């Protein structure tokens, strides 16, 4: 059978995937950062890489963005091979790095103008596009201010706006909200949600579980350079976690295994608390009290992606 393929802007995109990897690997000397992963990113979706620092997320993103060559496996981006067609791919990508690399001595507007010229766009086109992007990033009133005194959230929004100057088909965002306060994070999420509505394909790396749940249609969980699970946030939670989680904290020693046996489907013992995975957290809490357990505090919550990661890797997302 011949695999299905589509043509987008002159590039052949096989199997309907803008990014397709099979056995993709990246080694630095004897260290294998990415260990033979398979993935497909479909047009129009927000695809996420979830995992702690050192999981291989950024190394994968650098290969997809054609700035770091693969050392094994196959990779196509926008239907092209990064090894031989890197410049053509980069012309149609938008990249938001972990650290903002704006020109601090230039104004907000000048940052957009200068970056647009790197793509060979006309001055008239860049000026018109900059007006549109300043509105999108909510930076119109700061357009003629220098970048240096801007807040972290404003700089991050400008970095994202700059990455859109060439109308990319695919936008890569590496830890887009690291270091931002909650208000700035939510504003940035809103901007990214608008891009999804416009049909821009997003690839996002993050170690924030709430960010992955909010932004991603589908994601992979990475650990130690491997993909350990794949699916939508809801699918992963349903597959690897219970409906509710009961958190118990104790000021004295935690109870022994016999004291909590049968209270939940599964129990995770963390340094600061016990996690009881159960279909009914309140019922498990009542049963714990009936056994004479007296936690200093208790919390019943829904299962999350952090619970999924703990189940798959034996550690929390922030380890």
UniProtKB/TrEMBL annotation:
Topology in membrane: Peripheral membrane protein
GO molecular function: ATP binding; ATP hydrolysis activity
Pfam family, one: ABC_tran
Biological process, per Gene Ontology: response to antibiotic
SUPFAM superfamilies, per the entry: P-loop containing nucleoside triphosphate hydrolases
Domain ABC transporter as annotated: residue spans: 19-249
Stored InterPro entries: AAA+_ATPase, ABC_transporter-like_ATP-bd, ABC_transporter-like_CS, ABC_transporter_ATP-binding, P-loop_NTPase
UniProt keyword annotation of Membrane present: yes
GO CC terms of this entry: plasma membrane
Primary residence: membrane
Subcellular location: Cell membrane
Alphabetical list of PROSITE patterns matching this protein: ABC_TRANSPORTER_1, ABC_TRANSPORTER_2
Domain of life: Bacteria
Keyword field: Antibiotic resistance, ATP-binding, Cell membrane, Membrane, Nucleotide-binding, Translocase, Transport
UniProt similarity note: Belongs to the ABC transporter superfamily.
Name the record gives this protein: ABC transporter
Gene source species: Actinokineospora globicatena
């Amino acid at each position: 059978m011949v695999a299905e393929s589509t043509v987008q802007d002159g590039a052949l995109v096989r199997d309907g995937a803008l990014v397709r990897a099979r056995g993709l690997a990246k080694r630095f000397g004897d260290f294998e950062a990415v260990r033979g992963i398979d993935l497909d990113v479909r047009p129009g979706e927000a695809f996420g890489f979830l995992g702690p620092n050192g999981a291989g997320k950024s190394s994968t993103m650098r290969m997809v963005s054609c700035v770091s060559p693969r050392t094994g496996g196959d990779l196509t981006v926008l239907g092209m091979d990064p090894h031989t067609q890197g410049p053509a791919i980069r012309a149609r990508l938008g990249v938001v790095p972990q650290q903002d690399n704006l020109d601090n001595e230039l104004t907000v507007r000048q940052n957009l103008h200068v970056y647009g010229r790197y793509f060979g766009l006309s001055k008239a086109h860049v000026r018109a596009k900059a007006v549109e992007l300043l509105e999108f990033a909510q930076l119109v009133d700061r357009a003629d201010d220098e970048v240096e005194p801007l807040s972290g959230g404003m700089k991050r929004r400008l970095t994202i706006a700059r990455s859109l100057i060439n109308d990319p088909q695919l936008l890569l965002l590496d830890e887009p909200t690291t270091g931002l306060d909650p208000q700035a994070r939510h504003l940035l999420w809103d901007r990214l949600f608008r891009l999804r509505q416009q049909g821009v394909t997003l690839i996002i790396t993050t170690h924030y579980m709430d960010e992955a749940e909010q932004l991603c249609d589908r994601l992979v969980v990475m650990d130690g350079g491997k993909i350990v699970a794949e699916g939508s946030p809801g699918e992963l939670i349903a597959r690897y976690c219970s409906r509710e989680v009961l958190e118990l904290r104790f000021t004295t020693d935690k109870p022994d295994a016999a004291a909590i046996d049968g209270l939940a489907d599964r129990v995770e013992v963390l340094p600061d608390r016990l996690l009881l995975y159960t279909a009914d957290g309140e019922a498990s809490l009542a049963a714990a009290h009936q056994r004479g357990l007296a936690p200093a505090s208790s919390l019943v919550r829904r299962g999350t992606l952090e619970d999924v990661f703990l189940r798959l890797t034996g550690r929390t997302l922030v380890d």
